[in-house]
Amino acid sequence: MTVLGSRFAVPGLLASCLLASSGCLVLGLDRFYDELSLTFDGRLLGTWRNDDDDITVTIERSDWRAYRVKYEQTVEAGVLTAYLFRAGAQSFVDLTPQRGRDFGSFVIPAHAVVRIAVVDEELRVSPLSYDWFDVGLRDRSLPAVLEAVRAEREQILLSAGRKALEGWLSGRGADDPAFGPVMVFRRRSPP
Length: 191
Hints:
Strand content: 35-45%
Number of domains: 1
Number of strands: 14
CATH topology: Lipocalin
Shape: globular
Helix content: 10-25%
Order of helices and strands: EHEEEEEEEEEEHEEHE
Structural class: mainly beta
Distance between the termini: 41 Å
Largest sheet: 8 strands, antiparallel, barrel
């Protein structure tokens, strides 16, 4: 499935801040989890800060097992919906534009995934590595199951279905090069 030319409703936080990306994104057109893998961890709730990049993130409980993620940075602020899930031995968060808002017929709410861990009073976030996916797309070494394509704004889109995406994540190790550097947020306030 090719959707080149479509606009994707993913706030700039994902590109420049929370994901610690190189400026371009790796996005899924489908979610990265199934309902059985969803979990909820109250330790994520509260306000977190990354002083290096001047980002404050407040994570609140939302409907069902979702989180509401409010972020503020010098150049931007916004709200995302997040779902925590397990794939293999690791925890991940699937981030999408705020649930319940209609962005119009020509906007597809894409999904970004980050590996996440709470260690003491630190929130450690690691995005998919745009550079790793970019090289893999150019030299055709990415797993075919991901159905990766390059979009209009240089995003890399994974058009695989949910089962394929979750299955691929399950096989990733803790030091897998498919993930970028860890970004550390320190707790500023409890939930």
